[in-house]
Amino acid sequence: MPGVNCAKRVAFESPASRGLFEAEKAELHLRNAPESANAVDGFVSVDALQLKSLPEFGALIDMRSHVQVTGGVALLGGANLAGLVQQQNGRLPVKLVLFETVLGDSRVAAAGDLLINGDGTGSGNVNLTIGNADGLL
């Protein structure tokens, strides 16, 4: 499965905030969904993410996600997401197969069916699971 490996250290800046992150490994993969000719699977994983711009928060974070975008096969050809939403009459179905964040002994996971709307908002139903919530505080 072809993928993209990101630089070890990434910075971002917006009018509201800025930050510096570092991770041991970050990967992004897109592929045709095996069970649907018109869908694309997207996978993101980040291992040992550190928020370097918040040194008081020294915990390492591992993240995994898997989404399936029905009607999203054009993304493999370089289509942008906003244009794809408009091509789908302003409602692009996205199945959140898994979004998981692990921080120490704590775990937060989500899964559900979502829609990306033409105005940039999302809607849908998500099941949320939190393990060892006390460790998140």
* Percentage of residues in strands: over 45%
Query: Which of globular, elongated, flat, extended, rod-shaped describes the shape?
Result: globular
| Number of continuous helical runs | 1
Helix percent reads under 10%
Task: Output mean pLDDT.
Answer: 86
Number of strands: 9
Structural class: mainly beta
Oligomer: single chain
What does the main sheet amount to?
Answer: 9 strands, antiparallel
Through-space gap between termini? 37 Å
Q: What is the succession of H and E elements?
A: EEEEEEHEEE
Low-pLDDT segments: none
Report the C-alpha radius of gyration, rounded: 17 Å
Structure description:
The protein is mostly beta strands and 137 residues long. The protein is 5% helix and 58% strand. It has 1 helix and 9 strands. Strands 1, 2, 3, 4, 5, 6, 7, 8 and 9 form a 9-stranded antiparallel beta sheet that branches. The radius of gyration is 17 Å and the shape is globular.
Write the topology of this structure.
Elements (H helix, E strand, L loop, with lengths): L2 E3 L3 E5 L4 E5 L2 E8 L6 E13 L9 E10 L10 H7 L3 E13 L2 E12 L4 E10 L6
Antiparallel strand pairs: 1-4, 2-3, 3-5, 4-5, 5-6, 6-7, 7-8, 8-9
What descriptive keywords fit this protein?
nine-stranded antiparallel sheet, 137 residues, 1 helix, mainly beta
Brief summary of the model shown:
This protein has one helix spanning 81-87; strands at residues 3-5, 9-13, 18-22, 25-32, 39-51, 61-70, 91-103, 106-117, 122-131. It is mainly beta.
